[in-house]
């Protein structure tokens, strides 16, 4: 496996899997170019070393080919603005135009393929099946797609280039054509880009060798979606700070009243088991003693404060309140390594975002005093950007699902494909 820094790109075409799944407004303009900015150093490295670049990415979840709403052509201006180089748009992935453009690519030039997910072959999911198709029929269609068209799709993509770079950490947990299968066509010419390299280094650093005390702050609405990650973190952290909707399941499991708050009664035993395991492992679990409560899930709802385990009927917990902010800050400031995944309130609504802001500010303060902080998962990243604190923490991860799966200890197909 090559590192991007010591590979000779001179005169070579590099096909780079980037994660340009960026948010667009109604006019098709990019509203947050974080992921584009993250990929620029990798693209520039290839160009500086005398190579040319073929970019490929997905955007959204299109169900047909083509679908103008999900065309990557819309993001060309945003890439050009950050890269400072003209980006040619192929208009497809498989047609003659893409092949011709790739063949004639000169050193220093950049082209962009159309949305990979316009093709069923990318994800290996058959399309156009009858709604009443049986499981057997679905299975057979999937097998036929993988054994025929998908192989041709991967082969064609690989034929455009001399080397392959995976720089899309956000999709590394998917065994898709462009993230895992294509690597087989470049046994001696495949590598991670800087985004992937930095992500793996940052996450491995805190998961394998953290400076202690190590604190993980986990938010999110449901216990059920965080069980595996909580269990894995209990083996590694000294302090586990829990926030968000899932804490009401813990409160109710211990006999508390949570009103109309989000709650999973089928996870009560799981919540109690987690608390018992934490005690056994000597991990301190911290939850907010109080909650900001609202009588409706909207920006103009009436609000009040109540103990987190005694919320009146007709009210629901939407954020941590002042006591929680104080307790969370104290714990965060004691730690040398901090991982934050998931807001601790409904941060999309400004008046329910003060708890998440307090967490972000405490992490920034701890970082300024020498702690190492990693922010990961779509909503936490959106939080840190919303509060303008991204440059006040050590590392902001671009991966959502990929980060969670990696932290759960799972092998990611996009990582394994390069390392093998």
Describe the structure in your own words.
The model has no long low-confidence stretch (mean pLDDT 93). A seven-stranded parallel sheet has the order 1-7-6-2-3-5-4, sandwiched between helices. The protein has a six-stranded parallel sheet with strand order 11-9-8-16-17-18, with helices on both faces. With 420 residues, the protein is α/β, with parallel strands linked by helices. It is 37% helix and 16% strand. Its EC number is 2.7.2.3. Substrate binds at residues 19-21, 35, 58-61, 117, 174.
**CATH H level of the largest domain: which superfamily?**
Phosphoglycerate kinase, N-terminal domain
How would you state the average pLDDT, rounded?
93
- Give the number of DSSP strands: 18
Estimate the global geometry from the Cα principal axes: globular
Q: State the helical fraction.
A: 25-40%
CATH architecture label name of the largest domain: 3-Layer(aba) Sandwich
Q: Order of strands across the widest beta sheet?
A: 1-7-6-2-3-5-4
Number of helices: 15
Relative strand content: 15-25%
Judged by helices, strands and strand pairing, the structural class is alpha/beta
Q: pLDDT below 50 for ≥5 consecutive residues: which ranges?
A: none
Distance between the termini: 8 Å
Catalytic activity: (2R)-3-phosphoglycerate + ATP = (2R)-3-phospho-glyceroyl phosphate + ADP
Subunit structure: Monomer.
InterPro entries: Phosphoglycerate_kinase, Phosphoglycerate_kinase_N, Phosphoglycerate_kinase_sf
Protein name: Phosphoglycerate kinase
